[in-house]
Amino acid sequence: MIRFLIALVLACLAGAASARQDPKVTAELEATDTVVGQPLILRITILVPTWMPKAPVFPNIEMPGLLVRLPQRAGGPVSETIDGETWSGVQNAYRLYPLREGEFTLPGGKIELSYADPGQPAPIAYSVALPPISFAATLPEGARDLSPLILAQDFTLTQSLEGETDLTAGDAVTRTVTANIQGTTAVMIPRLIPDPVTDVLRAYPKDPVVNETEDRGDLSGDRVETVSYVAQENGTALLPEITFDWYNLTSGKVETARLAATPVTVTGSATATTPPVTAKTLALLAACIVVAALIAWLVLRYLRPRMGAYLAQLRRDREASEPAARRRVLRALRDRNLSATLLTLSHWLRFFPDASTEQQAQMRDALARLGAARYGTAPDAAPELWTDATRAFCELRSQLKNQTRRQQTSGCLPPLNPVS
Fold this sequence. Notes:
Elements: H1 2-19, E1 24-29, E2 33-35, E3 40-48, E4 66-69, E5 75-82, E6 85-98, E7 102-105, E8 110-115, E9 124-129, E10 134-138, E11 151-152, E12 154-162, E13 166-167, E14 172-182, E15 201-205, E16 209-215, E17 218-231, E18 235-239, E19 242-248, E20 253-259, E21 262-266, H2 279-319, H3 322-334, H4 338-348, H5 357-374, H6 382-412
Parallel strand pairs: 2-10, 11-19, 13-21
Antiparallel strand pairs: 1-3, 3-6, 4-6, 5-6, 7-10, 8-9, 12-14, 14-17, 15-17, 16-17, 18-21, 19-20
Helix pairs in contact: 3-4, 5-6
């Protein structure tokens, strides 16, 4: 009889193990080829038969010559009916922008995830490798001779000058050039301002500024370069012409963006009167240097350690304060990071040890609903639930702050009718 029961239990366990369904992971590329600088959408979808207690870890698919972007709203929860049952999971829709012509094969990697097993106390860990994903980037025939390579729906150049173009030695004029590109990434914009070939001007460039915007997956942006030219000697110079040939993806033709050269004239010389240097001046200068060195030594020797310790303590006190803890909770809510929200909320509640379970009920209910929606079968409600959780936290903080003020006030005021 005992042997029969053991055999029956083992058979049930074997049947449950065989019935367990593995997660389904798919990687779909919308096309196998594209034009250089134009995006391909890669959708990686993970579905599990139950729910995932935490977000899966996606591999890094970046590689040289390929720009990989995950737009803000291109990743989130999904659900699907499989064999009559609702499976839940997440999907990331990556934008792949090839920056050169040729074949691309993504590096792959493994997706690490875990999902709940209703019959077990611990979730099931699962790892799956992405299948090989390949595609090609091509160049239109009309764009093959372009150097640098610019393919876009629109490309424009504008410039502004700050200062006069008739200079005296020592004066300066500043040139700012902006290139705007539509329909692709601003990374495709090359260096704009060449160096002037002249001894009349000396160039002092600033670091270029590249801005990029995205509208429903369509990239655009600009590159801003600023160079200040300081007049060195008499003569005439040209701020160089800027010309770029670019391929218009809409018309299929090569067009030209151009900024004309700007002439600059330097006349006269900067004059300055230098007073004679006397022994008294040198002695006074030496005394000032000695005094300054002594003051600097005293500051470094005595004041700097104390000031550093004082500032460090101020920073620690500020980070350990309730307002700092509140900001961390709000930041986690704004980032829609459930794990960070739970952790920062727990730390923030330490500032209110008298907070009752009833006062926290609304906040905890909001987080429970959010957790169920995040990795459950109703992901569409998650955005509204983040708003509800933020509102619940603000109301909870207002209640607890008012309660603390009342306690402090009642403890500090003298009785209204003191007994003599």
